[in-house]
Amino acid sequence: MGKPRILSGIQPTGDLHLGNYLGAIRNWVDIQRDYDSFLFMADLHAITVPHDPAKLAANTYEVAAMYLACGIDLEHATIFVQSHIPAHTELAWLFNCITPLNWLEDMVQFKEKAVKQGENVSAGLLTYPVLQAADILLYEPDKVPVGEDQKQHLELTRDIAARLNYLFGKAENPILKLPEPMIRAAGARVMSLTDGTRKMSKSDPSDLSRINLLDPPDQIQYKIKRCKTDPIRGLLFDDPDRPECNNLLNLYMILSNQTKDAVAAECQDMGWGQFKPLLTDAAIATLKPIQDKYHAIMADPGYLESVLRQGRDTAAAIANRTLSKVKMALGYSTPL
Ligand code: TYM
After folding, report:
1. Where are the strands (E) in the chain, listed by range?
2. Quick one: which atom of ligand 1 is closest to the CA of 199?
3. What is the pTM of this model?
């Protein structure tokens, strides 16, 4: 038997930030030796909100380069572009027809994003989690490593698989495999630098709310200097009245590779003026090697293209097999 499989993806919308790294990519890298990894750029998801066609392809390549720069190793991983594999959209349609509408209306991310879009909410924004279910189930992964905000989408994915199995399969021989979410506690929910009660997000209009993986050192320093804090001396974890303090301590703990106890002891008597340079140094030290590698990869577009071509071929073979299985179960004839 081969290694268990993981699958995950990121939307190529805007710059990747520390939340994407700590909630997702870093974990893929840490576990990659033990899994067969399928990692993709969710470019079909990227158009569920207004987008700039002139930037979509470039952003997609940039995310692929970032996966590699963060340490994804092609010996263990297949990296591919979602839109290069038509099986994603085809399976999404089949799933759309068996997914009750009220399951989608309950999705927190839909409700949040729909408010921001006003009257121009697209049907794609509503059915986005169905496409995500197709992304996942096509590859029959054992686990899906993501940040906390994706948990509800993974539950929906399992519900869709179970419903299809129930309606069209046999109990002893299910059509689709139900994957488990994999959410690592540390870094699962990195919060905004300007509001410790909201998650760090690509779509926040203020760039000061996030540290982007490509921010140069002076920018990182500036953002941490400006970030929201509180007037209390002595920095403590887990105080519900001090969300910013908890977030910044957690970031420091992960970025400096220390235990919670060590950071709690180090920072318990500190003021912000003493703490912020430590966090700044830890962030710069983590991101500098990633940035150097990223720029080297981007300097060789031929290499990136070959990675994505190879990724498409490997991924398509698996995706097409699952799609055929589902179509047969739904009663479609095989093409002549
Ligand atoms: P996206 O592009 O919003 O985020 C990509 C990954 O980063 C994690 N993440 C965070 N983790 C911790 N703190 C944060 N502030 C933070 N912000 C983002 C997300 O949890 C995610 O793991 N719908 C997905 C993309 C997708 C997908 C999939 C993922 C499409 N199909 C199939 C997994 C499997 C999304 O929009 O992620």
Report:
1. 5-10, 36-41, 77-81, 143-145, 180-182
2. 15
3. 0.95
User: Angle, to 10 degrees, between the axis of helix 272-298 and the axis of helix 217-226?
Assistant: 150
Which residue among 55, 151, 177, 202 is the active-site one?
Answer: 202
> Is the per-residue pLDDT at 329 higher than 70?
yes
Q: Are 41 and 64 in contact (CB under 8 A)?
A: yes
Task: For residues 254-258, give the mean pLDDT.
Answer: 96
- Give me ligand 1 centre to Cα 255, in Å: 20
Which residue bears the tokens 């994505």? 308
Q: Is 225 known to be catalytic?
A: no
Say yes or no: CB of residue 210 within 6 Å of ligand 1.
no
Written as six digits, the tokens of 138 are 């096509």
pLDDT for res 220: 98
**Measured from the CB, is residue 179 less than 6 Å from ligand 1?**
no
Measured in Å, how far apart are the chain's first and last C-alpha atoms? 34
Mean predicted lDDT score pLDDT of the chain: 95
- What's the pLDDT tens digit per position in 201-245? 998 999 999 999 999 999 999 999 999 999 998 999 999 999 999
Q: What is the DSSP string of 30-90?
A: HHGGGSEEEEEE-TTGGGSS---HHHHHHHHHHHHHHHHHTT--TTTEEEEEGGG-THHHH
Tokens read off for 269? 């008597």
| Distance from C-alpha of 14 to C-alpha of 58, rounded to nearest angstrom | 11
Residue 320: what pLDDT? 97
Partnered with residue 182 across adjacent β-strands are: 145
Residue with tokens 């009245």: 241
